[in-house]
Amino acid sequence: MMGKIDTQAEQARETARRADQRAEERIVEVRTAVQEGLHAVRLEAQRYTEEQCAAVKEELQQAIETARRETVTTMDVVRREDQPSRRKPSKFDGKVAWEAYLTQFELLANAQAWDEDECALQLVSSLRGAALEVLAHLTPVQRTSYTSVAEVYRARLKARVRAVGEPLSQLAQDLETLVCRAYPAAAEDMVSVGT
After folding, report:
1. What is residue 60's three-state secondary structure?
2. Positions of the region Disordered (predicted)?
3. Which pLDDT does position 21 carry in this prediction?
4. DSSP state for residue 137 in the 8-state scheme
5. DSSP string for 37-95
6. Among residues 90, 83, 71, which one has the least CA distance to residue 128?
7. What does the H/E/C string look like for 84-126?
8. Which of 34, 133, 146, 185 has its CB surrounded by the most CB atoms within 10 Å?
9. Separation CA 163–CA 67 (nearest Å)
10. What is the pLDDT of residues 113-153, one digit of tens each?
């Protein structure tokens, strides 16, 4: 009987050991399934979060672009409303000193924030009479360059001729003045009329 009890006890231990082993295997299976499920949930959450972030980012970019456009449009309207009426430069016919006229012109250009092209256009459109004839001595490219048009003295020097009844002393003085203004960096002995 003892032998039978020992055999039964041994069978019971073996059954318990197999049950424990199956339970451990089942625990490993459940743990693996849970880990895989958690990994899948993390991946799905990450994908969802990235999609939502991309959608929000797109919406924000559109809102920022719309706001930027509205701001620029509003600023343009405000600038136009706040801007004093555009002033035109006075006409230049060569009867006043070029330096005085150019100083006035450049103050006006700065006040109205004209760029180089606008300065050239405004200066050319303000020339009258003999001063306008200066344009004939400029190339088409020079006519659109403010710097070239502003160098009117060189052109005036080239175009200067003795007027009927004009004394030679007046012509000489005028030529000397034009040379000095057209070539301000030239040496004094090159531009002075010898007496």
Report:
1. helix
2. 1-24
3. 92
4. G
5. HHHHHHHHHHHHHHHHHHHHHHHHHHHHHHHHHHHHHHHHHHHHHHSPPPPPPPPB-SS
6. 90
7. CCCCCCCCECCCCCHHHHHHHHHHHHHHCCCCHHHHHHHHHHH
8. 146
9. 65
10. 998 888 888 988 888 887 777 777 777 887 788 777 777 67
CA dihedral angle for residue 130, residue 133, residue 135, residue 136, rounded to 10 degrees: -160
Could you give phi then psi for residue 111, rounded to 5 degrees? Answer: -60, -30
Q: What is the pLDDT of residues 24-54, one digit of tens each?
A: 999 989 899 889 988 988 989 899 989 998 8
Which tokens belong to 184?
């301000």
Structure tokens at 98: 């070029």
The pTM (predicted TM-score) of the whole model is 0.43
CA neighbor of 142 nearest in space, from 130, 157, 154, 129: 154
Q: Is 102 exposed, middle or buried (0-12, 13-18, 19+ CB in 10 A)?
A: middle
Cβ atoms 143, 135 nearer than 8 A: yes
Which DSSP letter does residue 73 get?
H
Task: Work out the number of other CB atoms within 10 angstroms of the CB of residue 25.
Answer: 10
Alpha-carbon distances, residue 118 vs 72, 108, 113, 121, 149 (angstroms): 22, 12, 9, 5, 12
